[in-house]
Specification:
This protein is 13% helix and 38% strand. The protein has 473 residues and is mostly beta strands. It is elongated and about 80 Å long. The N and C termini lie far apart (62 Å).
């Protein structure tokens, strides 16, 4: 059995483990989609989710619909031998996970990373029967897959409503951790909408019900035995459960599965901006009432955003009539918009609210985010006007801006500006000389933040600075 694939997160010494043994690692970018006709999963004669009297009753009625999944793939690796002749070897790998039946004619759900890039997928029922499965559809962005086996009269699980979950609600995970079929563990919901760094749009159900490698794709169920999540990942130092498991909300799955059923893949809307969260310093710098929306730090060329008139420094506060509370909210809303749809986008620009009409296109790319750091201490910056030679050296097409030579100040200022940064704008004004920048800064009122547009390693970003700043040539 292969080792667990894992990847580092922002937590030191911790790992996000996609809970399939030997499964290929997939970066999850969780986004919603809509527009498909609703599908009634399960037979009309199937049981409805009613409260069970005990977890034993839930186990008795649910475990029969939970399946084991083994997916095989063949990897050919080519290398050069000592004699410089090309050599190759074939490696067979097996991914082990879980799934659950949603229709009695053999449709079942699992995690996409369990079956990604595999060719031979075998599904084992609780009764012991084994079937070869075909992939009906899969979506790496949400880590969901819909499979089909040729069978009938199978037990199914009803899909519940994950929006009704609250912290403290009891839940159970059912699956095949470490290949041990039909294992059930219980716990509570420990967080809702958890962002774990798996993607720009992750909104997981966090639970302390033990989730281990092999649980991926299995159901997280409530006390009625209805599915409220699809188990997908855990945070661990060792690869085993430490009480931090994560499941995809079933309401996201209910939006994705009909699309996978009809087309096999998901097409998402695309706006074409990079955004970052609006922090208190940014809100003060742009005179925005409240910390809301997403700050535009890049408008991609030939994108709907560029065609619609969005600009660097805009704060997107509304989309299609809905308020944007946080930057990731925008990505979710854009993703669920059908290509070709024209939507109103509300922006805050230089202290004034305005609405732009933008025509969204179909594009699976996700918007990026750049997080800026802030400080409150005095910062002295030594700069030099950009020459054509210096512009070329730092990856800029034109000699516009001020090259940062040195940054002085106390340690909290480190990372705000760095040598080789290029200051392009200060509070919306071009940075042509230290004298002009100093004059701009002199007009600031006490307590106002400075908003810089800088280029770092040829990438543009907006940096708010809440401190006394002195620019010297």
């Amino acid at each position: 059995m292969d080792t667990i694939f894992s990847r580092r997160t922002r937590w030191p010494a911790l790992f996000i483990v996609l809970c399939a043994l030997g499964g290929p690692l997939v970066a999850m970018d969780v986004r919603q989609t809509s527009g498909a006709a609703p599908v009634l999963w399960g037979d009309p004669s199937g049981r409805s989710p009613v409260p069970a009297t005990s977890w034993a009753q839930v186990a008795a009625q649910d475990r029969a619909a939970v399946v084991g999944i083994r997916a095989k793939r063949v990897v050919t690796r080519t290398s050069d031998t000592e004699s410089h002749a090309a050599g190759s070897r074939t490696i067979r790998r097996e991914s082990v996970g879980s799934g659950f039946l949603i229709q009695s004619d053999g449709y079942l759900v699992t995690a996409q990373h369990v079956i990604a890039e595999t060719k031979d997928i075998r599904v084992t029922l609780s009764s012991g029967g084994e079937y070869r499965a075909r992939v009906v559809g899969q979506d790496a962005a949400t880590d969901l897959a819909l499979l089909k086996i040729e069978a009938s009269g199978l037990p199914t699980l009803p899909l519940g409503d994950s929006d009704l979950l609250g912290v403290g609600d009891p839940v159970a995970a059912i699956g095949n951790p470490f290949g041990l079929e039909g294992t059930m563990t219980t716990g509570i919901v420990s967080a809702i909408g958890r962002v774990i760094g798996a993607g720009a749009y992750d909104r997981f159900i966090q639970t302390d019900a033990a989730i281990n490698p092999g649980n991926s794709g299995g159901p997280l169920v409530n006390t009625a035995g209805a599915v409220v999540g699809v188990n997908t990942a855990l945070v661990s130092q060792t690869g085993g459960s430490v009480g931090l498991g994560f499941a995809i909300p079933v309401n996201l799955a209910k939006a994705i599965l009909p699309v996978l059923m009809t087309s096999g893949h998901v097409t998402r809307g695309w706006l074409g901006v990079s955004i970052q969260p609006v922090t208190p310093p940014i809100a003060r710098a742009v005179r925005l009432p409240g910390e809301r929306g997403g700050l535009v730090i890049e408008v991609l060329p030939n994108s709907p955003a560029q065609a619609g008139g969005l600009q660097l420094g805009d704060v997107i506060v509304g989309y299609d009539g809905r308020a944007i509370a946080t930057a990731p909210d925008l990505g979710l809303m854009v993703a669920e918009t059908a290509g070709g749809t024209e939507v109103p986008v509300q922006v805050w620009r230089k202290g004034v609210a305005t609405t732009l009409m933008v025509r969204i296109v179909a594009q699976p790319e996700a918007a990026g985010e750049i997080l800026a750091e802030q400080t409150e201490d005095r910062l002295v910056v030594a700069v030099q006007r950009l020459t054509p030679g210096l512009a070329k050296a730092v990856g800029l097409p034109r000699p516009v801006g001020l090259l940062v030579l040195d940054v002085e100040g106390s340690s909290p200022a480190e990372g705000i500006l760095q040598p080789k940064d290029v200051i392009l704008e200060v509070n919306g004004h071009p940075a042509r000389s230290a004298a002009e920048v100093s004059a701009i800064l002199a007009t600031q009122k006490s307590g106002e933040a400075t908003l810089l547009v800088i280029s770092r390693n040829a990438a543009t970003m907006l940096v708010p600075i809440e401190m006394s700043i002195c620019v010297q040539e």
